[in-house]
Amino acid sequence: MVNMMKKEVWIYAQQDKNNIAEISFELLGKGRELANKLGALLAAVVIGKNVRELAPTLTAYGADKVYLVQHEHLDLYTTLPYTRVLVDLISRFRPEIFLLGATALGRDLAPRIASHLKVGITADCTELAIDNYTDPLSKKKYTNILMQIRPAFGGNIIATIVNPDTRPQMATVREGVMKMLPHDAGRRGEVINLEPELDKEDYKVQVVESKEIEKSVNLKTASIIVAGGAGVGSKDNFQLIIKLASCLGATVGASRAAVDGGFIHHDHQVGQTGTTVRPRLYIACGISGAVQHRSGMSESKKIIAINSDPEAPIFEIAHYGIVGDLKEVIPKMITTYRQKSGGEQK
Amino acid sequence: MAYRSIVLVKQVPDTTEVTPKAMREDGTLNRSALPATFNNDDLHALEMALQVKEKHGGMVIVLTMGPPKASEILREALYRGADETILLTDKRFAAADTLATSYTLSVAIKKAGNFDLVFCGREASDGNTAQVGPQVAEKLRIPQITYVEEICKLGDGLLEAQRLTDQGCEIVKSSLPLLLTVVPDANEPRPPVARRLMRFKKAMTPAEVKNKLQERADSLDMVKEHCQHLKEKGLLITEWDAQVLALEPDRCGRLGSPTLVKKIERVVLTGGEHKAFPPTDEGVGQLIKELIEDHTFG
Question: Residue B138: which of A105, A112, A248 has the nearest Cβ?
Fold first, then answer.
């Protein structure tokens, strides 16, 4: 009965064919921390056709409670039925915080829910914390508010956003940023099965066909990344980046500027709206180092920056720096690496 | 069958130019201190709407909310083929978050008359939230298809589109009216048409007419007369404020925004010293040697 009084932090457990998306575990990790700070319970909400078997996994990764909504008409995600289910659940259980992944699905679903509930929502957060807040105009004090932290304006600034007056405090969270907890099979949690009230009107959009496309690049697990930016200058020059990567057995990365410039496909993009990476070595070639990019790679173990501009911000997070023309430096690197690594193997 | 399409566009600050000077005390952006451009994704939304019109007939109305100078992108939309443009501008719209913005836009869309399709870009390059599209759809109580790559079929009151998903892509169909958000891969936006540019560079909002006539206008009548003249030639950009839209004052602008900016930080670089190598054979050799020796290279 005590639990009924406790506040709740909710995360949306995104699944596809009963595979839980990695972001959901990351949300559980962060959610656990926030719930502990608030003295609240952490709950995961999972929706689908046959999702009952997922509850123990969600508990093992940190959930105190799992709200299960299972129905044959909730098999494939479409916006409107899922919105209705979540709006109903939120109105009934009134969570303090509701977090979703900033995935294609999360960014489709979360704003629709927030609009329906007329609550504030912050997109694509890279950090979350609990703190007090005083409104600068009214001087009204709020305790234990969710600080929603995200880069904005092309990553030039980091904004802390609050929604002090509306509940739940909603945010989507960027993939690959929050740390998940280790799997703990011994954790106990409560499972709450709920019957959804569906409406025929919500089935105006129907999935005709879905195709899975394997991403051609896997930056997340790469141990060495060679990345190029605007400073590479052209698609032709970008071949140099690809050559160096292939010589080192590395994966090719790129900044947004390089992708927007058409040098390489978006799948290679590192940073905000791209992938967050933590390789053993990150070689940044012709990347000036806008925050937007840095936030996606600054946790690399070692960073080499090659840039003709000695003032480029990338040097401030680099461990090794070469100020020079990458068109000259990269061929030198390839030649030297071939000589030295070849020499050692002999 | 012809379709009446609304395209939502945004004038965005060129985010490569954000300096502390461009920020106000309260953490909101002083847009006037930055060069402004047509949000990239919205050009793709406009292109998709124009292609629907070319294939099926109908009309394309382009709508934006912003300061008076956001009329610039409406002229750009006219150069590319828009039939009508509407500017929503009012001091009371300022500092709106996505909820307040979508409320204002949805009321304006309803005022603009019947529609079959609403097109939005995937996201704006300043906030990157991708929230306004779905929120406008919710306010209009119509379905949404986000991340659209292609319209596959359109007819008999149904639209079939290919959209991106986390797993790859899917084809979905929906009844109309419907809101779509469009990804940049969807198409190649057409450039302005020279003939249209010559014609529509004279397009103006009533406020711009007023400014232009300021020195020689003896009365408001002259402004009215000039506006009427422009309207007859299809050169008047419609302008609506909070009063014309009969908005609830506490639902637009800062008042209607549940999210508040608590703090803005220019990003402080936290990195320490780095080891510099010269761009010479020796320098590069030294670096490679060091990384091989400490096993960074596998």
Answer: A112
